[in-house]
Amino acid sequence: MHKKAKVHHQFLVFVQYLFNIKRSLFSFLLCLPTSLLALILFLLLVYNGFTVFYVHLPFPSKIHPEPANFSAGNSLKKLSSTVMYAVKEENPSVILKTHLPPLQNQSIPVLTTVNHHPLVSRPKKVRRRKSVTKLLRFEADSKQFSARVKGFFVNSVCKVRFFMTWISSLESFGDRELFAIESLFKFHPNACLVIVSNSMDSVHGSLLLKPFVDRGFKVIAAKPDFDYLFKNTCAESWFNSLRKGNVDPGGISLGQNLSNLLRLAVLYKYGGTYMDTDVIMLKSLRKLRNVIGAQTVDLKTGNWSRLNNAVLIFDKKHPLLYKFIEEFALTFDGNKWGHNGPYLVSRVVARVSGRPGFNFTVLPPSAFYPVNWRRVGIIFRGARSESHSQWLQEKLGEIKRESFAVHLWNKQSRKLQIENGSILNHLISDSCILCNSSSL
């Protein structure tokens, strides 16, 4: 019994000793500054989380340098004081994405393992390649493009040539796009319009255009022959690389970027006027030659700050068009919105302004872009009050006096309804031929 009591006493002494150590340790920690104590706890948590949830993610082996940002120089042309207003347009936010390696076995589901690459069922590279294949699947039929367009121009008495591109599906070619054609022929009844499109060059596409053809207007849709349109330009080698899979089409719609290139190519090949399918014509463009429109201006200097490519009017083989195509091929980036479109024409014009051999004019925003994309809703709304009604009348008068066309900024306005008494309601009444478009 005495021996057991002695062991029990020693155990109690040991427990008391451990308790004293624990108390001393906590006393020491409590004496430390709060920030140091928080740092120690944070490091412990990080270490614990790292050991439990560690996952190895691959990173691209090569980082492509960013192209230089555009800045307006002192040589830029000053614009008319009749510009209604201009605002600074911010770049849309960019979401960075981690590129995953292609699958060895496409049937494997999404899976993450420690110290291994993630396995995905449909990597982005495969999906992007399919988008290229989808756009190029009509190449065999498109070889008739040159002969068809040439015959169309020869057999038609064309006072002016117009071009549109449509890379989307036939189902999405709706009232707004049809009214763009309607307004074009309202002020250019002797024009010839070529719609460069795979989907519109079809039986159903012909039915959409039939009301115009029946009234004697000259319009056709033709599948683009990329080889013919890009021949003898920098776009030729770029497109061949894209076709072989050596160009990353990026996360932005390839159709949108090809539309940016096609409009330049058809104007370079034939000369004439290009207009987007969300542009409403307000008066004739026949007196304009070799012009591009400013989207915004710097209110302090009066110089343009951003150009746009929704309306382009240029002679055949104009050197500025060649520079546009060259810039597209050399600086293509499919992951930045606008980089191959409005930003592209702005970069090139800023560089060549004032140089000999480039004869063109930059028109003020009031010419084609009287309403900025951020405020496009104001032309869809009717009067809310007597003062608002007066303002709408004044704005409508300005647009009628100063604008050749109005860009509707389709992405921002597609879901907006046209209200009675709105600016757009009046413009439609002035620009219609069939006058049966209930909504745009």
UniProtKB/TrEMBL annotation:
InterPro entries: A1-4-GlycosylTfrase_dom (IPR007652), GlycoTrfase_DXD_sugar-bd_CS (IPR007577), Nucleotide-diphossugar_trans (IPR029044), Put_A1-4-GlycosylTfrase_plant (IPR044789). SUPFAM superfamilies: Nucleotide-diphospho-sugar transferases. Residues 314-437 form the Alpha 1,4-glycosyltransferase domain. Keywords: Membrane, Transmembrane, Transmembrane helix. The keyword Nucleotidyltransferase does not apply. Pfam families: Gb3_synth, Gly_transf_sug. The chain crosses the membrane at residues 25-47. This is Alpha 1,4-glycosyltransferase domain-containing protein.
